[in-house]
Amino acid sequence: MRARVDVLTLAVSDLERSLEFYRRLGLTSEGVIGTQYEGDETTPGGAAVMFELEGGLILALYGRADLAKDGSVPLTEPRPGAFSIGHLVSSREEVDAVLAEAEAAGAELTDEPHDRPWGIYSGYFRDLDGHLWEVIWNPRAAAG
Amino acid sequence: MRARVDVLTLAVSDLERSLEFYRRLGLTSEGVIGTQYEGDETTPGGAAVMFELEGGLILALYGRADLAKDGSVPLTEPRPGAFSIGHLVSSREEVDAVLAEAEAAGAELTDEPHDRPWGIYSGYFRDLDGHLWEVIWNPRAAAG
To answer: B132 and B92: one domain?
Structure first.
């Protein structure tokens, strides 16, 4: 396997609502695509949202039930803590600002941002479906 | 927020075991780092694994209990279906080959790879902690 990730797909309960959330955070998308693939009880539908990120990575949103069918895994309740998405910024103030922006867009901040023992300053928010994002300032690394 | 994801952190139950799994899949890492940050009942430890991927994205492995503490979220059982990681390859045969490689490394294939209504050929595997990877050939896109 080559060392690459091309798409990160987040399961969501409401595509339009999550599309709006991520648009409020500044991501751009042409909107919901693939609605012509309707799916049924066993076949996943195709409706999805794609955000093209810097570097070419696609952040996709896909219905929870559709992802469970597409991946042939059980449909379970969303649980936090299985993974997190790290977003690097270039200052301590920018960590605070992005977290405030996320909260204003409807995210939940899980606690106050703070210095971690390994030398970063960061805080987490959970998106509308509980997916964890960590907003990070690493004084030892230049961000973006 | 800028349109970028810098790190994708997967919560794992056993760092060394998952390090070996991803190494068998061809990813390279200097091994477990951050063990000097021991953590305690409320402070997360710093032990983690980092794989630098093409394009600069970091795929990180981090203990489940540490991620729950670090993100201030409850420690819950791993559940599949909250997200998936998409890996593009350049032929139908390569989808089959990567899935076989993953299975040989200890992954579980959730079903046979097949053509999807939206024009891709893909199959899924679950890593040792249940994280879903979709290996995709899209005839309309050049991979990598």
So the answer is: yes
